[in-house]
Amino acid sequence: MTTMASSRLCLLLLFFLCFILFINHPVKCDEEDTLLEGINSYRKSLNLTVLTKNDNAECFAEEVADQFKSQPCTNSTGSNTVPGTEPQIPNYESLLAKCHLNVSNTKDGYVMPACVPNLDPSLVLTNFTETQYSGELNDTKYTGAGIGSDGSWIVVVLTTNTPEGSFVTYNAASLTTKIGPVSRLLFLLMASFFLL
Ligand SMILES: *[C@@H]1O[C@H](CO)[C@@H](O)[C@H](O)[C@H]1NC(C)=O
Ligand SMILES: *[C@@H]1O[C@H](CO)[C@@H](O)[C@H](O)[C@H]1NC(C)=O
Ligand SMILES: *[C@@H]1O[C@H](CO)[C@@H](O)[C@H](O)[C@H]1NC(C)=O
Ligand SMILES: *[C@@H]1O[C@H](CO)[C@@H](O)[C@H](O)[C@H]1NC(C)=O
Ligand SMILES: *[C@@H]1O[C@H](CO)[C@@H](O)[C@H](O)[C@H]1NC(C)=O
């Protein structure tokens, strides 16, 4: 093989590598990461532990945001809701099921939808830290969070470290999610072998 051909092969492999990594890590919305950082700064200022990212809660947050996306922001939606009159999330259990979750491992969690036009980052953060939601955000029982957004809606789902709030998926889901990293590792190994 000529050096020309082998360097082309290298490029091709690199391209595939990037492609695979890209597929496995879809680009995350900045708003979501920014909000988690903001919430964690808020918790640090109260001397509370930071919330770790929970991927299963994030899946559920995306599903909930998807349900709300067609509703416009008003002074009675999202964090403006009068406590006790929160709209029930329709088909809650089927949304959980989409993320391979059920009530048993999510009932201690807490779902907080907020509506902010254009998801303006400064308003998004204060819609959580300076509203009724602050009472949940400053609660020591929560240890993790997943954030999803769609349209003007951004949803934070808080998780606990108890089984009832862990957002651990049931068997079928944990199997499929384990295949991902393993096949990625295999591919990396194969690719690096070729590159040597
Ligand atoms: C957090 O801890 C620091 C150091 O222990 C203390 O000075 C500060 O007042 C605490 N803040 C709150 C909000 O409890
Ligand atoms: C919400 O908006 C409506 C109509 O714009 C207004 O009549 C009402 O007073 C507002 N409620 C609050 C709590 O601001
Ligand atoms: C929450 O977002 C709304 C936009 O929907 C904004 O008008 C309001 O000022 C925000 N509230 C806080 C406390 O940031
Ligand atoms: C948490 O927030 C609630 C509601 O804003 C407040 O009443 C409570 O004192 C706060 N607790 C702490 C530890 O900051
Ligand atoms: C939730 O899933 C667990 C594990 O599969 C199962 O044992 C439990 O009965 C399920 N609970 C509900 C309410 O479906």
Q: What would you note in describing this structure?
A:
By secondary structure, the protein is α+β, with helices and mostly antiparallel strands. It has a single domain (28-175), classed as Pathogenesis-related Protein p14a (3-Layer(aba) Sandwich). Helices cover 49% and strands 13% of the residues. The chain contains 7 helices and 4 strands; from the N terminus they run ααβααβααββα. The chain has helices spanning 3-24, 30-45, 55-68, 92-98, 121-129, 134-137, 171-195; strands at residues 52-53, 110-115, 142-150, 153-160. The chain has a 4-stranded mixed beta sheet with strand order 1-3-4-2. Strand 3 and strand 4 form a beta hairpin. Helix 1 packs antiparallel against helix 7, helix 2 packs across helix 5 and helix 3 crosses helix 4 (92-98). The longest helix has 25 residues, at 171-195. It is elongated and about 70 Å long. The two termini are 14 Å apart. The relative contact order is 0.19. Mean pLDDT is 84; it is low at 172-179. One 2-acetamido-2-deoxy-beta-D-glucopyranose binds next to loops.
Give me the secondary-structure topology.
Blueprint: H1 3-24, H2 30-45, E1 52-53, H3 55-68, H4 92-98, E2 110-115, H5 121-129, H6 134-137, E3 142-150, E4 153-160, H7 171-195
Parallel strand pairs: 1-3
Antiparallel strand pairs: 2-4, 3-4
Helix pairs in contact: 1-7, 2-5, 3-4
The structure holds 2-acetamido-2-deoxy-beta-D-glucopyranose (5 copies).
One 2-acetamido-2-deoxy-beta-D-glucopyranose (NAG) binds at residues 73, 79, 115-117, 123, 126-127, 130-131.
